[in-house]
TrEMBL record:
It comes from Bradyrhizobium erythrophlei. NodD regulates the expression of the nodABCFE genes which encode other nodulation proteins. NodD is also a negative regulator of its own expression. Binds flavonoids as inducers. Belongs to the LysR transcriptional regulatory family. The keyword DNA-binding applies. Residues 1-59 form the HTH lysR-type domain. The keyword Secreted does not apply. One of its GO terms (molecular function) is DNA-binding transcription factor activity. This is LysR family transcriptional regulator, hca operon transcriptional activator. Keywords: DNA-binding, Transcription, Transcription regulation. InterPro entries: LysR_HTH_N, LysR_subst-bd, WH-like_DNA-bd_sf, WH_DNA-bd_sf. It holds the Pfam family HTH_1. GO terms for cellular component: protein-DNA complex.
């Protein structure tokens, strides 16, 4: 088994199509890609992919293998990045990642702390989905990230920051917008926008667990890949969506939010880092987590 087999398999699994994976991701011919996948399945002795009505689908063995293949590819890239860093002279730079939207709350406090103690530090900012941030930490391209507690993230450590309640987001002229808060049963009867299990796995799981706990059926009529798409779908379809509280900072005037009655679903925000990262800047910030949380809470109270 070679690395190209893993890359080819992951591309097909994520694209859900041999044709798309071959043309857009791998820039190879589809027959060649099919042979590579067949060779991989023959070596493993199991079927990984099947052709379904919606395109390529993973078998049970394929789903398990996908998780391990992704981790293996990330670790190979991390090894290369570590080697490149070791060959370069040390420089005072620090890469921080934010789950898109959270930089509005946390970046000012982080920059204040860094500039107060280390004014010459070059800070690089990344704004991405949580799985991409975790991958960046594993690869060594990001030093510290504000993200969800991702699974399948070997070598990463997480420090809890806070729990955010989910809120109901809807068009300003929606019938439910006249209410000060929304009951769980009201959500079930509306056109609903779900979130991607791949791009937002933690949030997707939290919403599913809340539906199960409250006994409501939440079958998404649309699915959003990210928060910007969710807001666009709310505006264009007149639907509702469940989003973390911080999303209020990103809503246009045509979109409003309302709290959920009772015990709302909660989603964790954590500070993630790679335990193999020996950066003094990382060590400094990790020692200041409580101060960081205090600064953010103080700013939010203004």
């Amino acid at each position: 088994m070679e690395l190209r087999h893993l890359r080819y398999f992951v591309a097909v699994a994520e694209e859900g199509s041999l044709t798309v994976a071959a043309q857009k991701r791998l820039h190879t011919a589809q027959p060649s890609l099919s042979r590579q996948i067949h060779d991989l399945e023959r070596e493993l002795g199991v079927q990984l992919l099947i052709r379904g009505p919606r395109g390529i689908e993973l078998t049970a063995a394929g789903r398990v293998f996908l998780d391990h293949a992704r981790v293996a590819l990330l670790q190979v890239e991390a090894a290369g990045e570590a080697a490149r860093r070791a060959s370069q002279p040390a420089r005072a730079s620090f890469a921080i990642g934010f789950l898109t939207g959270y930089e509005m709350d946390w970046l000012p406090a982080v920059m204040e702390m860094l500039h107060a103690e280390l004014p010459a530090t070059e800070v690089v900012i990344h704004s991405q989905d949580s799985p991409d941030l975790a991958a960046g930490l594993i690869r060594g391209k990001i030093d510290l990230a504000f993200l969800r507690p991702e699974k399948q993230a070997p070598g990463l450590k997480f420090k809890p920051l806070r729990k955010d309640p989910l809120i109901v987001v809807m068009p300003r002229d929606h019938a439910l917008a006249a209410r000060s808060s929304i009951r769980p049963q009201d959500i079930a009867g509306e056109t609903f926008i779900g979130v991607s299990a791949i791009r937002a796995p933690t949030l997707h799981a939290v919403i599913g667990e809340y539906a199960k706990r409250t006994g409501i059926a939440l079958k998404p009529d649309h699915q959003a890949e990210n928060i910007a798409m969710a807001i666009s779908l709310v505006a264009s379809t007149g639907s509702i969506c469940l989003m973390p509280l911080y999303a209020k900072n990103l809503l246009p005037k045509t979109i409003v939010s309302r709290p959920i009655q009772g015990a709302p679903p909660m989603v964790d925000l954590v500070l993630g880092y790679n335990e193999a990262n020996t950066s003094p800047l990382l060590k400094f910030l990790l020692s200041k987590v409580e101060e960081l949380k205090f600064r953010v809470s103080k700013n939010e109270g203004r």
